Amino acid sequence: MLDWTTACPDWEDRIVERRGLIPFAPLFPEQADDALSVFKSLRVVDLPGQPTFGEVSEQWVLDFVAAIFGANDPDTGNQLISEFFLAISKKNTKSTLAAGIMLTALIVNWRHEEELLILAPTIEVAGNSFKPAAAMVRADPELDALLHVQDHLRTITHRTTKAALKVVAADTDTVSGKKSGRILIDELWVFGKRANADAMLREATGGLVSRPEGFIIYLTTQSDAPPAGVFRDKLDYARGVRDGEIEDKQFLPVIYEFPKAMLDDDAFLRPENFYVTNPNMGRSVSRDWLEREMGKELAKDASTRATFFAKHLNVEIGMNLRANRWTGADFWDARKEPGLDLDELLRRCEVAAVGIDGGGLDDLFGLSVIGREVETRNWLAWSHAWCHRGVLERRKSIASRLRDFEREGSLTIVGDDLEDISQIVDTIMRVKQAGILGCVGVDPAGLGSLIEAMAEIEVTQESGLLLGVSQGIWMMNAIKTAERKLANGTLRHDGSALMSWCVGNIKIEPTATAIRATKANAGDAKIDPAMALFDAVQVMSKNPEPQREAEYQVHFV
């Protein structure tokens, strides 16, 4: 019986030492060798002299190809490893590799009338895979006689088996009804931005149910924004399998990314370390070019660095690094406290302030609770948001991200019954019943129904438990207080992806005498939960005492 693992817990040592990231030899060496003989004979037409893959490929390429085709049991025809995930920096021959792998699969395929599929997010990306595949066929007279290329259909057909390799652009071509047995998904990060991507990929890969010899390959660079949707899900899963946290022998992750220590001490910025996420350095990737471009980025402001790091160094984008970002964003990730939920906050704190912002049907309804810890007097923040389901249709560019937050548990999507207000009131009531409610700070505009609902639990201006927090430049004190406390570590938070996104969306606009916080991009860049945090900071800055110990004076801050 074969026994193997796709986990690679020592990947950090391997990647720095330039060793392979696949922790096992091909399960069936003869199958791997047969496929490699085909793959290595294919010509890379856009290189000088049109060399073959065998002449120009680094070992990591050959290992990846061998792992794919060497996982097919020749006795049963079953593919024992059926999912492959490769994340790598831009220009490391990813699209050409996709063409070579799928052309090899077409040639070694035994099933007649089979459909093989490369699914790309756009026509341009589809062309990046189809054109080199077609060129490989035309560069070899033997292949040209065996395979029929139809450029207008982006299809290559095996003349004997009638099996066909199709390259499909998801933005123009339908994937419904596909019965593909071998599938390659190119640039998965782009699919992560699409609200319907999960359903689309399920439809495209449905043919594997009746194709035990089939496989799926996901190829991607890092996203130009914080990972979302199907890309976020698959990336997290791949890391979990690689690190040994998830056991899945049928899923092989190969992720070229920097070890955490190299990110923490900025070692990834040094040119001598560029090879870590660019295993094709010296072939399809020029170190001189990367070094020169890095110098340009470091000489400019931070507005474009994140995209450069993501694409050419495979560094995941966490926070928005625009020049006009909120300064507190630079410290946000470092102040996460795992396990900090509302119950934990209520248990550890002597007083709490609640901030609320938003509420329109095109906005998020944000709530933040900041508690003052008994022992340290540090501020602990927990946040949640609500949105109407119509936002998913009106703002399709962020729909997949909102679904991610819903799965995380930091966002609740409500229907036309608008249960958000009742749930917000229930949350405030939990703080009140814990005996630590200091006050609730709200943006006074447009929250009439919420004010009425809070009156039912005696949270009113008359009781001293409700404050109207002036907005605009009047929030400057809260903005600066929050960033100072984040910088010195006395404000810690629950670490939700929701708040990381909202904090990254904040744009700081200077006026003649003050500053104000606004959205980086109107419409899609939501910041309501972050503004709710500032409302709570404004209240906590007044050093409130819990309701059981003090009487309150009604005032606006």
TrEMBL record:
InterPro entries listed in its UniProt record: P-loop_NTPase, TerL_ATPase, TerL_nuclease, Terminase_largesu-like
Domain Terminase large subunit-like endonuclease per the UniProt entry, residue ranges: 257-538
Annotated Gene3D superfamilies: P-loop containing nucleotide triphosphate hydrolases
Terminase large subunit-like ATPase domain sequence ranges: 66-211
One annotated GO molecular function: endonuclease activity
Pfam families: TerL_ATPase, TerL_nuclease
Entry-linked PANTHER family: PROTEIN YMFN, PTHR41287
Protein name stated in the entry: Phage terminase-like protein, large subunit
Organism listed in the record: Salipiger abyssi
Taxonomic placement: Bacteria, Pseudomonadati, Pseudomonadota, Alphaproteobacteria, Rhodobacterales
